[in-house]
């Protein structure tokens, strides 16, 4: 069997293993989904009239949902960091190292499984958004495909970073804490209010981070607003974080004797 066939076979096995874990223990995924759903309902029904600046609650629903969708990815990948940390501390990785398997397949299984879970979570949260009034009437088929492509690429980038965070964490609790920036960063972006309404000293913090260009790009694709340079910035952030997370995670995994 060629090395490529071995890698594909073992990665598929590890993917099935991670999906089975997610199916048997859905409580972690459901708990992580509660955060974006609760924030969506809170900001729409409690703060919506105030945050909309007089435009109305319906307009604010359209504005906030794209940001909540990307926040959902950050929330879901916290579970990935916890899962990777559990594997590293419970001894299963030591057993895998003694077996004749393609070693990176362990990480690849986590990454692909997490991306699939992230996309499924986005669909569920998107359904909640649609139920409370979100509509994307201006997006055509190509824009919808581009939006799904951006979501998948963003999920891939954050997942590799989460895998690295899980590998450096001594236990599941530390992994969860280390990955918290993945859900806190959207709160410091244009997810809830536009950049021009922020204080001048805070605006660079919101503007020069990965979530804001991705949110603005997704918002433009779904609502027909201008994207400008945000599309290239979003793709650049995604590619850069994916490469950084991949080399960080694989180097840590290969170097860790446990």
Q: Overview of this structure, please?
A:
The radius of gyration is 19 Å and the shape is elongated. The protein contains 12 helices and no strands. Helix 1 (3-24) crosses helix 6 (105-131) and helix 7 packs antiparallel against helix 11. The model has no long low-confidence stretch (mean pLDDT 85). Helices cover 75% and strands 0% of the residues. The chain has helices at residues 3-24, 27-45, 48-51, 57-89, 92-97, 105-131, 141-167, 172-178, 181-184, 203-207, 211-223, 230-255. By secondary structure, it is mostly helical.
- Major beta sheet summary: none
Shape: elongated
Please indicate the percent range of residues in DSSP E strands (runs of 2 or more).
Answer: under 5%
Distance between the termini: 28 Å
Radius of gyration: 19 Å
Run of helices and strands: HHHHHHHHHHHH
- How many strand segments? 0
Enumerate how many helices there are, as a single number.
12
Mean pLDDT: 85
The low-confidence parts are none
The secondary-structure class comes to: mainly alpha
Q: Bin the helical content.
A: over 70%
What brief labels describe this structure?
258 residues, mainly alpha
Summarize this entry quickly:
The chain is mainly α.
Q: What is this structure's SSE topology?
A:
Blueprint: H1 3-24, H2 27-45, H3 48-51, H4 57-89, H5 92-97, H6 105-131, H7 141-167, H8 172-178, H9 181-184, H10 203-207, H11 211-223, H12 230-255
Helix pairs in contact: 1-6, 2-4, 2-6, 4-6, 4-7, 4-8, 4-11, 6-7, 7-11, 7-12, 11-12
